[in-house]
Amino acid sequence: MTAIATDFETVIGLEVHCQLLTQSKMFCSCSVDYSGAAPNTHVCPVCLGMPGTLPVINERAIEFISRTGLALNCTISSFSKFDRKNYHYPDLMKGYQISQFDLPVCLGGYLDIEVDGYTRRVGITRVHMEEDTARLLHRTDAATGEGYSLVDVNRSGTPLMEIVSEPDMRTPAEAREYLVRLRQILRYIGVSHANMEEGNFRCDANISLRPRGQAEFGSKVEIKNMNSFRAVHDALVFEQQRQAEVLNSGGTIPQETRGWVDDSAITVSQRSKEDANDYRYFPEPDLPPLRLARMWVDDIAAALPELPAARDARLRALGLNEHEAATITESRGRAEYFDRLAEAIALGPERSPKLAANWLLGEVSRWLNEHTAEIDEFPLTADGLAELIRMSEDGQITAAVAKDVFEKMAATGKDAATIVAESGLAQISGDDELTEIARKVIAANQRAVDDYRTGKEAALNSLMGQVMRETRGRANPQTVTSILKRELTVK
């Protein structure tokens, strides 16, 4: 790795394919909810590529790609068109893919990422719309041992958005962070599940090395077959080292496509790519050009939610630290629950955000982890949880009791006030009642009393714990401390 750091600069660009959350396919009415369905059951003559069929553009998909472009600071083209991308492959029945070539929907955006304390702006070359291909299923005949392949067309025609970055990333860590932030944005704006493990968020990486200070790019290697953020990072690290070793030994890097072998943690050559593929693009004759009205695009922009970076900055301005803000903004659902909770607590701008963060990252997150649930499955409304928090902050119940009430609320659906009343959990603050309990504890714990009177302050904690047990956690801690100190000074 030393050779890379001192002799070469790494250049990385990413191409991300993302399936959209539409109900139907890109150019026909077949359902895209094919996960787990029997092969070739979500098909029609259009997505089967039958001669004489005519595609029809899915308006929802165009809305989603426009929403994505706006979230990535792109220019939304008022005029774009679809093209035929011609290549022959077993999972492409027509012999061409309907895609976009020279006039895509979105052009020229960027995404800022933060890595190791510095910010990198990654340019977005384009975001274009296309259709997904069918899926090959490779099998081995049990009797003969010979391999064969089957084609499942259910996936064919699913709306697929390709997001192409500029070669602006310089480390594998930056590439991983770019993918994490891109996925976060796509989920925030509701256009995709963006899950690499499920195959609806797929990444190809282009990497090259060049001597430091050289403007010209080195020979580019494309890496495929990566199905997790870790795999993308590790594949780039391996390829970075491999190319540095080749160049340091006087060799040259051929332009090629390599595949990542996860089990062996290596890349292997798949095919040479000395010349750019000639896909013989030409305008799709069966689809009219897209003309997007400015007012239509403006309406989409106005409906965008607050994006992660802006929300993170706002939460930090409210007094949350970097970790708290980043964790809360990780998902849109959690961030929006935080906003509702902070507003409902209504104890002022100095207290409400911090209290909301403490409970959301504490008890709520613990409950979600224990139940393997997402925030939209959490049974307590923000208003209901806010009532509990206010009761704790106002001294109606102790902090320990509040956690117990929280569990009962989540289990029963009852509100905090009802549970406190039914269970007799209201805080004990009366001097006379607590004094009587404190005297009883002091009389039963002579050793702790002697330790405290000889200067061992820690002994007070033992007595405090006894009082809290006697009161089932309902005693006001400050009042108990004051009473214990007073009674222990009496000879």
Number of strands: 16
Overall pLDDT metric: 91
Low-confidence stretches: none
Task: Bin the helical content.
Answer: 25-40%
* Cα-atom radius of gyration: 31 Å
Distance between the termini: 72 Å
Oligomerization state of this entry? Answer: single chain
The number of distinct helices, counting runs of at least 4 residues, comes to 16
The largest β sheet comes out as: 9 strands, mixed
- The strand order across the widest sheet is 2-6-7-10-1-11-12-13-14
- Gross morphology: elongated
Approximate strand percentage: 15-25%
Structural class: alpha+beta
Quick gist of this model?
By secondary structure, the chain is of the alpha+beta class. It has helices spanning 2-7, 59-71, 172-188, 229-248, 294-302, 308-317, 322-328, 332-345, 352-370, 382-393, 399-412, 416-423, 431-444, 446-453, 459-470, 477-488, and strands spanning 8-19, 75-76, 79-80, 83-86, 96-99, 106-115, 118-131, 135-140, 147-152, 159-165, 201-211, 221-226, 256-261, 266-272, 282-283, 290-291.
Structural write-up:
The chain is α+β, with helices and mostly antiparallel strands and 491 residues long. The protein has 3 domains: 2-295, no CATH class; 306-423, no CATH class; 431-488, Arc Repressor Mutant, subunit A (Orthogonal Bundle). It has 16 helices and 16 strands. It has helices spanning 2-7, 59-71, 172-188, 229-248, 294-302, 308-317, 322-328, 332-345, 352-370, 382-393, 399-412, 416-423, 431-444, 446-453, 459-470, 477-488; strands spanning 8-19, 75-76, 79-80, 83-86, 96-99, 106-115, 118-131, 135-140, 147-152, 159-165, 201-211, 221-226, 256-261, 266-272, 282-283, 290-291. Helix 4 (229-248) links the parallel strand 12 and strand 13. The chain starts with a helix and ends with a helix.
